[in-house]
Specification:
CATH architecture of the largest domain: 3-Layer(aba) Sandwich
Mean pLDDT: 92
Number of helices: 12
Largest sheet: 8 strands, mixed
Strand order of the largest sheet: 5-2-1-6-7-8-11-12
Number of strands: 12
Helix content: 40-55%
Radius of gyration: 20 Å
Structural class: alpha/beta
CATH superfamily of the largest domain: NAD(P)-binding Rossmann-like Domain
Low-confidence stretches: 3-22
Strand content: 15-25%
Number of domains: 2
Shape: globular
């Protein structure tokens, strides 16, 4: 996403846990990054049963030593005792929030496949496009719900998440439009959300926003707001991305794209994009699920988008120079 959401902290209320059905299905959360732990702490705060799935015994030992997850919100710290486990724990999984990186999603879910109940539901909270379809294809018996979030959070250390700005989460299932009953859990946890009947449109729109902003912040080594000095390049990319969206059957996602990109650049002017932060920290980026996915879609439709393709080439070269994975 193009940096952390920097809106004001709107007040919200959390339902009294005693008013909520505490015997609801356990929330298993895969991925202890910023969004995964942000969801885990708020669900736990609402009195819901949460289990955090950690990749191995070493991470589990580290987590147990920390004695829980700490949420920092508006300068106030609170630690929540959330049960931790490894993928080989025996308990069946009925509901799984997949909050790991796009490139890890398929492999991480495969490790848990033997634990998924016949009626399991997965909430896929990944950037870009491509990973969601891949996970859904490997789990035809499960219900896979796609999610798109503008919530801002970052890790303030191991097992510590800082809530950087309130946003919104849209959820939807293109093949099964009826909303699930567990949306009540999100309401109880104070997680602003909406069920979307056009979730793919939202995901395509966010993909385009990311493609217009994130790669340029890496190439120019700048904060989001500094892209205002590259107005013409941003405008050209937006025109090509809008053409791609139209060609991919997403005309609604193409509407006023440039205006929305400019709004995001201004709203997050002081922030560094997530891709910039990944490159700066020497981490693998999600290029394959953002710019790579867009360029592959253009190739499938035999659509010539020279500036977008050139941008991908420049970014891949930058990653090569830095010794980072190019996929």
């Amino acid at each position: 996403m193009p940096g952390h959401y920097s809106g004001s902290f709107a007040p919200f209320t959390v339902s009294d846990p005693t008013e909520h059905k505490l015997m609801s299905t356990t929330w298993h959360i895969l991925g202890a990054g910023s969004l995964g732990t942000l969801w885990a702490t708020r669900l736990a705060r609402a009195g819901l049963t949460v289990r955090l799935i950690l990749r191995d015994k070493a991470r589990l030992a580290s987590y147990r030593a920390a004695a829980g997850l700490t949420l920092v919100e508006q300068g106030v710290e609170q630690t929540y005792t959330v049960f931790g486990e490894t993928p080989d724990s025996p308990e069946p999984i009925h509901r799984l929030l997949v909050a790991c990186k796009a490139y890890d999603a398929q492999g991480a879910v495969a490790q848990l496949q033997h634990r998924l109940a016949a009626n399991a539901e997965l909430i896929l909270l990944q950037n870009g496009l491509g990973s969601q379809e891949a996970v859904a294809a490997q789990l035809p018996q499960a219900r896979c719900i796609f999610a798109s979030s503008t919530e801002g959070a970052f890790r303030g250390g191991d097992w510590r998440v800082v809530f950087a700005g309130h946003g919104y989460t849209w959820l939807g299932d293109a093949s099964h439009p009826a909303p699930p009953l567990w949306l009540d859990d999100l309401h109880a946890a104070g997680i602003p959300h909406a069920w979307s009947t056009d979730i793919l449109t939202r995901l395509w729109r966010k993909l385009a926003l990311n493609c217009a902003i994130n790669p340029l912040t890496v190439l120019y080594q700048c904060r989001n707001g500094e892209l205002q000095a590259h107005h013409c390049e941003v405008a050209t990319l937006c025109a090509e991305l809008a053409e791609l969206l139209e060609c991919c059957g997403q005309p609604t996602a193409a509407l006023d794209l440039q205006h929305d990109v400019e709004r995001v650049i201004q709203a997050t002017a002081a922030n560094y994009s997530s891709m910039y932060q990944d490159v700066a920290a020497g981490r693998r980026t999600e290029i394959s699920y953002l710019l790579g996915y867009a360029c592959q879609a253009a190739a499938r439709h035999r659509l010539n988008l020279p500036h977008l393709q050139q941008l991908q080439g420049r970014l891949v070269e930058q990653l090569r120079v830095r010794g980072l994975p190019r996929d």
